[in-house]
Amino acid sequence: MAASDLINLSGLIDDAKCFALVRQHRWPEGARCPVCGSGAVIRDGHDDTQPYRQRYRCKACAGRFDDLTGTVLAGHHQPLRAWVLCLYFMGLNLSNRQIALELGLDGSDVQTMTEQLRRGLVAKAPEVELTGEVEIDEVYVVAGHKGQPAAVAKRGGSDAVASWQARRDAARWRRTSHPSSA
Ligand SMILES: [Zn+2]
Questions:
Q1: Distance 26 CA to ligand 1 centre (A)
Q2: Are 89 and 99 a contacting pair, CB within 8 Å?
Q3: Which tens digits make up the pLDDT trace of 92-131?
Q4: Which of 9, 42, 78, 100 is the most buried (most CB within 10 A)?
Q5: Ligand 1 centre and the CA of 31: distance in Å?
């Protein structure tokens, strides 16, 4: 019988203390508005589904936020206790796979969590998803430099504004039709 069958660690974790930990870590001198930075904030009830997640209202800019707003801990389907335990296991040098087993989570979910936690428990969530730009970059390399650099250099201006979708399709065609030409 595995240890995780004997003890459900997640069930022993106190949600109230997890949120207190985040507040202490994020705002050691009291909550501040993540929008305008003002310390003139008042408590404004709790989250509808997470009773220990404190909500706030900023008296300076009238913005509303809560304990997790603007952090990597917000907007995820994992409860805060899973993040805190994940951080604890990272401190014990457990692998992503071991953490996933202990928490009963998917390995790729845990990988995402540990990558984000390495930047800090309450590090700001990235504002831009990079997937689209990564693909454009790849197209530029494949269609331009690796393919026919002379033709690309000659075309220059007008084709540079052609839709990236067309260039992506061209790159795909080149990759699948002429794998040995690169
Ligand atoms: Zn504010």
A1: 16
A2: yes
A3: 999 999 999 999 999 999 999 999 999 888 888 766 555 5
A4: 100
A5: 11
Which amino acid is residue 96, in one-letter code? N
What predicted TM-score, i.e. pTM, was given to this entire model? Answer: 0.63
The alpha carbon of 57 and the centre of ligand 1 are apart by a number of angstroms equal to: 8
Nearest of 117, 129, 107 to residue 72 by alpha carbon: 117
- Ligand 1 centroid to Cα of residue 106, in Å, is 37
Q: CA–CA distance from 30 to each of 21, 89, 122, 131, 133 (Å)? A: 13, 28, 15, 36, 38
Q: Residues 148-174, buried b or exposed e (16+ Cβ, 10 A)?
A: eeeeeeeeeeeeeeeebeebbeebeeb
**Spacing, Cα 82 to ligand 1 middle (Å):** 29
